[in-house]
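Handoff note, outgoing to incoming analyst
You'll be picking up this chain. Sequence as last confirmed:
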Amino acid sequence: MTATTLEKSTSRTRPRGGFNRDRFENALFRILKPIVIVLLLVVAVFPFYYMVLLSFRSLDSLLQDPGALWISIDELDLSTYLEVLMPVSDGGQGFIVFMRNSLLVALSTVVLTLIVAIPGAYAVSRLQFFGRRQVSGLFLAVYFFPAILLAVPLFVFFTQVGLRGSLVALVIVYVSQVAAVSIYTLRNYFATVPVSLEEAAAIDGCGRLQTMWKISLPLAMPALVSNGLFIFMIAWNEFLFALLFLVEKRDSWTVSLGLSQLSGSIEVPTTVLMAGSVILTLPIIVLFFASERLLVGGLTAGAEKG
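Most recent structure output, in case you need it:
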């Protein structure tokens, strides 16, 4: 084919006229991108903003203008938070005790789950044994069954052993729920750690446990942090089993259970309910933004190789 023929063939493939699909799509995306981002921000942030706004308003101000989206500094009222945090004996809702219980349960769940999941995930990713692939699939199969199916058997079991109404029972249930998915997630991350590093450590005289402690765990720290954060969020926000085991013992209530009791009472003002919602939500938001990079990095790295 001559150069002239090639030039004519190329010219026929070029779009004629002013319309160009690629330029049109790029221009459209440039226009729609900020619009979509703003809409998503409004949908995500506005409910939380309005909740915070209501929590700082007095009940009289709310009744006079319930739709106000902005208030002056003079209208700020902290009495709702004082009422939520004060003990019941002083006329409050006792959320300080609820937060202490939730923090104790969540931290215990994180620590115990990682103690179980780290060696389990390392064994599944590094050791060769019969049924290794089936075990990995079994970890995910646990989540095919809804938690409500376990409610009655667990209620009967913990009643028989005398742990109903105890935070220990709640921690046991949470660990059993999240341990499987934690092992699966950490297994994927351990699989990305180069085997050559562990072989070099073995040549230097390190045993299997020393290799895991000195080589694999430091490299897997982003995954450990992200996994721990998700476990904390699950334990902090869980409601079903907290209601099932602790409803009869108010001193052992968690924050989510205390908030549900506020929402179900006609005697509690909306402003107090919103203050309780802020107290429940704020710790998770702070933790998420404080460790966002480790959270995203750990999850994506753990998902690259199975």
